[in-house]
Structures are given as structure tokens and as C-alpha cells.
Amino acid sequence: MGATPAPAEPPQRIRRRWRLIIAKGAGLALLLMLLLSLSWMTRPRQVADLILDRLGAALDLQISSSGAAEYHLRGTPRLVVRDVVARQSGAETPLLTAERIYLSLPWSTLRSVGSDAGGLDLTVRRVEVDAPRLDLAALQRWREGRPPAAEVQIPTLTDGLRIVRGTVIGDGWSVDRLGIDLPALHPEQALAARVGGRFVNGDTTVPFDLQLALTRPALDAGLGASGIATVATPDWRMPMRLHLSGRLHDGDDGVGLDGFKFGAEARYLGGDQPLPFVYGLAGPLRYDDGRFTIAPLGAVLRGDGVVPDFVAHGAFAWQDALSLRLDGALVAWPNGWPTLPPPLGQSDSTMTFKLDYRGPANLSGNTGLQLRRDETRFDVDFRLPRVLDWLDQLATGTPLPPLDGRLSTPRLEIYGAVLEGVEIEFEDAGATP
Description:
The protein is of the alpha+beta class. The chain has five helices and 24 strands. The protein has a domain at 233-433. The strands form two sheets. It has a 22-stranded mixed beta sheet that branches. The chain has a two-stranded parallel ribbon with strand order 5-8. β3 (78-87) and β4 (96-104) form a beta hairpin.
């Protein structure tokens, strides 16, 4: 007899066996994909390049990193990139460079980076930037190249931002030693930050340390700041405690502050005695193409001794030189100035003035001044440092001020003598032509 054939395997068992084979194959494929993904995710350079590429695409910038990169997966993923350069496509001058950028990124943000569907999630736990260098001219060119409808996406920084050793490059000026400490940032919430640094223009420096607040991170938000700053030149210093406020502005006339108000308690330190005073400025503040302006400008000054009290209006501009024009009135003749002879000194009429200055930011240039009271006219040019030195030595020095100009008055009384039709010319013999 022949061998008895084996009974046929039931179809149900065959299906179970194929399902098990398919499941094992799918598991192996999934495991292989997971291992490949982990291998890719543990390569810092590839992760860094992908994140910077996606971020650059979102901002229309070319962002690269040539330094060593680090990536940590434990807990919240952390990425460190070094020698970062961001520039507008085709531009020679980088918009931003940085020695080191640290990013702590939630997994949700990383998934959006690696996905082609949907937008980029800009939620970040913390950002730290070492030695960034921002070029304002390049930044302005990038802004002008953006579509009119393009809006800046404000990221969420749950644990804030820290910047150290930053630099901002302007047209003939810079801010160095810049430090920013921002505890948190949310697109629809108010924020507070501490900002410090040093403004530099030629041999004039202004170190500052400010507390800053915004109603929200938007182009029409309200801004307030207070803190300390010191204007320092080789010949004098002016420490001050300041406050400023306004509403952020971004338009065809530049960026700046609408409703800008600035007030400071200051001390001029350049002679034997400090000169304390307070002053305030108000007007629309603008920065456009390297030029700062406040026009129209309102100004007020309050002091004692040789510091005059006045209220004025005019205009302020600063780029390669400082330009200041004021048209106002003295509240009273300063008690530290030489006494005016009768009848000029006894008049109750308002003494108006016009002041016109253009020169270095340290106020060492030539200033034109016109004073008017009744029919008396006083038109002179002077240099502020020389006048301040003269006032400081008035008790022992010459009674003639270092001025160039003319005084004309219909009547003057000096030591009992009455002079009529008086014209006096002043010449600062010690001034450098």
C-alpha cells in the first residue's frame, strides 16, 4: 500500500500563519525605520541643518552654521549651533551672525520641522545667543524685500531668552556689550525684559541699564522703559536716571515710537561743581536709513544756578552730526548768570530765544543763539564747553563771556550812567577758528 497523504491544513490556520509572518515583517520594518530615525536624530549636524533650513525658509533668509553642533534627546530636546550666519538671499553682508545659539525645543516643534504638512510650530522652551552681531542696514534691506502682506511670526519662548555680548551696527554708531534677559515671550501677552549695553559714537559713549516693558510683542504695542545711563566724553560726563514711553511704529517713514516721551534727572560733571537738572523731550521718534529724528519736538529744562529754565519747541535730527533747533522762552533769568543791568533786568516781559546747533554729538560744536526781550536783541555764536568753563570760573575770571556776536538795546544803565542806542560787539579771542 502507498503512503497515506497528510491531511490538508485548514485554511483558518494558514491565514493565521500569514498574519503572523506579515506582523513580524511589519515589526521588523518598523524597528528598522525607528533605528534609522534614531540614527539620523542623533546626528547633530543633520538636525541643525534641517532646523536652520526650515527656519530660514519661514523668514526668507539663508541661515547656515559652520561650527560644531550638539544635540541632546534626554528630556526636552536641546540643540546647540555655532558660528551661525543669516543673510538675505544674494546679499554679501550678513544680517546676523552669532558665536553660539542654544535652542531647547519641544517635541511638537521638532515634529513640525520634519513635516511638510502644515506650518512651522514656533514654540521654543529657551533661546540663548552668545555674541550676536546685527547689521541694521542689512536688516532694513531684508524688511524692504519682504512682501507687504508678510507678517513676522512671533515665537513662544516658555523659558525666555538670554543674549550676551551682543553688537548692533548702525550708520556711524554702534551698540556693544549688549545684554538682554527676557523671562518669557508669548505672542499675545505683555512682556518685561532687562536690557543693558553701551552706545558708541566716535569718542562719545553712553552705557545704559534699562528695565523694559511691552504691552505685547506687536508693531503697535505700547513701550515703557526706565533705568540709568551716562553720557561720557573725554571732557565731561552726564549720569542720568531716565524714563521713556511711546507706541511702536513701523511705516514708510521708518521705525520708531509714536507719542514718544522722555524724561531724565541728570547731572553735568565737567567743572568744579556738578550741575543738576531735569529735562524732558516729546514728539514722534523715527529711525530711517541711518537717521534719527524727532520732529516736531517739544522740550523742557529745569535747573538751578547757571542752568536755565525754559520751554521750547523745534526739531532734532542725528546721523553723521547732531542737529538741534529750539524756539522757546526762558521762565526766568538764571540766578547763576551775570545780573542784567536796568532796565533790561527789571522788565517783566518774556525773554524769548532761538537756538540752532549742528555738530558733534558731544555738543562741542558751534551754537547760534538769539535772545529777545522788549527791544533788546542779543545775537551770538558760542561753544558750550567754553561757556561752561567760563561760568565755572566766573567768580575769579573775566566778566566777559566767550561769545561772538552783538547786543543792541535802546537804553542801558551802568553804575548810574544812562546809555542810549547801545550796541556792543563780542569776540571770543580764545576760540579756535
